[in-house]
Fold this protein.
Amino acid sequence: MDEGAAWTEDSSARFIELGAIYAPFREDIAGAVLGLIPAETDEGFLAVELGTGTGWLSAAILERFPRARVLGLDGSPAMLRMTAETLGRYSDRVDLQRFRLEDPDRLASLAGRARCVVSSLVIHHLDGTGKRALYREVRERLEPGGALLIADIVAPASERERRYVAERYDGMVRRRSLAVNGNLEAYRRFLDDEWNWFRYPDPMDKPSTIPEHLRWLQEAGLTGVNVFWQRAGHAVYGGYAPL
Ligand SMILES: C[S@@+](CC[C@H](N)C(=O)[O-])C[C@H]1O[C@@H](n2cnc3c(N)ncnc32)[C@H](O)[C@@H]1O
């Protein structure tokens, strides 16, 4: 995964160190995803996470659902090592594998069907055609009633919205830096790294607008398609396979 305008091991190292500040919405995302997974707390089921990163979202699922298993996929060896560390205490319910998001066989290792496929801040690496194809593929891999739940950055629909969202996102990271570290060092690195996509568009990031996502999810045959949470250019959206 070390090619041209793509996520690299250097990106992984930076995100492992500062992701909790650069992406200051983890509690909201986890709350939405956990609340929307179509399962009772004591049910056994398979959850798939695309792009586990440090593994915080899979950890939240395994903690909330003590009989759930997770198939965690990521393209970065460094991230997979971090995920394994984070999920150490749940290791008997976890299978981690390397995958490439752009690979048409990316879900080939999924034996059977999943109750949910979740992903946070990953799918925007695909262009519109790629996201559309992925939504169709995931729909085929879900159990009846299963959910596709995505947290990601979303493209603004106007220049005015882009400027508003860019400022909101900076403000959230600034507050998070102060709250977590008691200083603005991480926020300054966020600015120096030009991480705010809404100010510094990067060719490896190809976010789509909310209406596009909703249309592609519906076209894939999902029901109950909606935006479940949204803030500062980040959103949780998805839908359910018909029963
Ligand atoms: C911004 S991080 C998000 C990580 C985590 N889900 C989170 O919310 O903190 C993006 C993750 O996607 C993975 N990734 C990026 N591009 C990828 C690709 N083309 N194929 C597979 N994994 C990829 C990276 O290794 C990284 O773990």
